[in-house]
Amino acid sequence: MTKQFKKNVLKGIAAAPGIIISKAYLYKKDKEEIFRESVDDAELAIQNLKDALEKSKKELKKIFELAVDKMGEKRAGIFEAQLMILDDPVLLENVIKRIKTEKLNPEFVISSEISKYQDIMDASSEPYMKERSHDIEDIKNRIIRNLRKKKWKSRIDSDVLVVTDVITPADTVLFTRVNVKGYITDFGGLTSHAAIVARSLNIPAVVGLHDATSRIRDNDTLIVDGINGIVIINPDEEQLAQYKEKIKKLHQFGSELLKLRDKPSVTTDGKKIVLQANVDLEEELEYVVQNGAEGIGLVRTEQLFQVADSFPDEETQFEVYSKLAEKLYPNEITIRTFDIGGDKVLPLDIKEPNPFLGWRGIRFLLDNEDLFKTQLRALLRASSHRNIKVMFPMIGSIKEIRRSKKIIEQCKAELKDAGQHFDNDLPIGIMIEVPSAAVMAGDFAAEVDFVSIGTNDLIQYILAVDRGNENVFEQYQEFHPAIVRTLKHIITEGKKNNATVSICGEMAADILAVPLLIGLGLDSLSVSSSILPHIKKIIRSIKYSDVEQLANECLKFKVEEQIKTSIHKYYKTHFADDIQQLLKD
Ligand code: PEP
Ligand code: MG
Question: Are 434 and 457 in contact (CB under 8 A)?
């Protein structure tokens, strides 16, 4: 899929809009080779080691508890064995002694000491022992990873463009601390969480470039065009001049858009469209308010805690949710309960053969009721200003909705007994992102106050295309007729059953999709705050009766291209040049 234009141009997937010219920083986090290095400050090295051991222990304990629950004592024993190694006083003593006397880096020492255990096991004639040696490799890597994470934070340069093979959601959170200006990755798709976080942070990103890390060197000058998915390595004079001009135009348009902040989001013929923001990181809150969002349509709580060692306790969550609710008051915020699993891996790295079809979202929460209740109690307590809504991810059956609602009732009863205040009418909603929920949208909607369409997942599940895999990017079609018709079905059925229907998937932030979505009857959109002013500008330029007609036409088409062509035609005839420059070339 990587096409080449001029020799220094790479083409990938446009993952977060904006254009930036800056220096490259090659971020190679996966080099697991361990070098023997000396350290100046042995005490600091020992402290770092202890912290990493503690963190690894915490992670493993959590995994162990969950594994016992899910896989039974026997298989969970693997993790218990790993924990025992971490607790071995002889190991710790030896490692500390060597760091002190030989002044060596902790990665090297811990690796060589643990390898001694492995050598003994490998030498055993018992197959069982040999297998255990493999598990120990895991714990070694965990400790080293935790040691490196700590070191990495101080090592990365500020104000650079990160070039790497793949970015995890946790990486993106760490990058925010050092003011990274953009991302370029070899792997990843449009709705991978790394791309979503890049959009939240308002930094351009191009993903799925295949060979960026082998073609780009540290300190190369790069142009990253996140609108068209283009990266230019060491641009020539002509390319630089062309892009400087483009950046100037975008800035002009950007400042014009900010003037819309307090203007209503209505079509030219008076249809009101509620325009809210998606929030992935606490750091984004300022943008949300600045960009004039009418509340938050999706708080991805799992992202807020991405860097935490384990699940945050009730008090910590209560503080975060209260802060969000206060900041946005009187506007509403929609808090989605933890959507763990899929590509949203938390420290609990339990391995599953098909994580996207596995223990994810509501399934995980209902199997871990204590964790679920902790979150629900925290958000109920934060709801006393009556501007919080709760939303459940990955709902696939009515049973899941009813069980979740019952658990909310239990939480309310507990809080009442404890004399705590909360909103007794807290609105309850679900994400529609699993095909079963889409098919039964009417029945599901009848059980709740609102539904929100999560197209990122819905598209991947309806079309059977991995949302994060750049190899099948062409097949991940937002405008596939099956998707457009499914959206229509959900909207009609949801409204019929008196539920509010909104959309919080990335499709709502796609400039090309907005007229179609409004025409299909959606009257509430939630998008990354960085793109919100652009979407408002489009809404304010749309005539509802025109896009209704456009949507009806699109519902009849049988291939994606016809739908896209039809919307492009609509843009050409109805919009000025400044908006058209936001569409991909
Ligand atoms: C979605 O699936 O569209 C969605 C908004 O949820 P997430 O991207 O967090 O899976
Ligand atoms: Mg989803």
Answer: yes
Distance CA 420, CA 441 (A): 35
DSSP state of 32: -
Atom of ligand 1 nearest to the CA of 456: 3
Largest CA distance in the chain: 80
Cβ(565)–Cβ(583) under 8 Å?
no
Find the Cα–Cα–Cα–Cα dihedral 124, 126, 128, 131, rounded to 10°: 40
CA separation for the pair 585, 571 (Å, rounded): 13
Nearest to 83 by CA among 67, 63, 109, 61: 61
Cβ(292)–Cβ(250) under 8 Å?
Answer: no
d(CA 533, ligand 1 centre) in Å: 21
Specify the ligand 1 atom closest to the Cα of 457. Answer: 2
Q: Taking the mean position of all CA atoms in its chain, how far away is CA 54?
A: 27
Q: CB-based contacts of 48: which residues, under 8 Å, 6+ apart?
A: 106, 147, 150, 151
Which residues are catalytic, by number? 193, 504
Positive or negative, the CA dihedral 100, 101, 105, 106 is negative
Residue 161 DSSP SS3: strand
- Residue-wise pLDDT for 570-582, tens only, equals 999 998 777 777 7
Protein residues whose CB sits closer than 6 Å to any atom of ligand 1: 298, 300, 339, 433, 454-457, 504-505
H or E, element range at 135: helix 127-155
* CA–CA gap between residue 349 and residue 274 (Å, rounded): 38
Mean pLDDT to the nearest integer, 271-282: 91
Give tens-digit pLDDT for 408-447. 999 999 999 999 999 999 999 999 999 999 999 999 999 9
- The structure tokens listed for 85 are 């190694």
Q: Token digits for 551?
A: 């949507």
Structure tokens at 161: 């463009």
The answer on pLDDT for 512 being more than 80 is yes
* Cα–Cα separations (whole angstroms), residue 285 to 96, 148, 257, 280: 43, 30, 19, 9
Strand 524-528 with 388-392, pairing: unpaired
- Which residue has better confidence, 127 or 342? 342
Helix (H) or strand (E) holding 147: helix 127-155
Residue list, CB under 5 A from ion ligand 2: 433, 454, 457
Q: Which residues contact 228 (CB under 8 A, 6 or more apart)?
A: 14, 584, 585
Task: Give the residues across from 184 on adjacent strands.
Answer: 163, 206
Sheet containing 221-225: give its strands across. 9-11, 230-233, 221-225, 19-26, 161-164, 182-185, 205-207, 13-16
Residue nearest to atom 9 of ligand 1 (CA): 300
Tens digits of per-residue pLDDT, 309-329?
A: 567 899 999 999 999 999 999
pTM value? 0.76
Residue the block writes with tokens 């519902």: 555
Cα distances from 237 to residues 240, 241, 243, 247, in angstroms, run: 5, 6, 10, 15
Question: Virtual CA dihedral for 14, 17, 19, 20, nearest 10 degrees?
Answer: -90
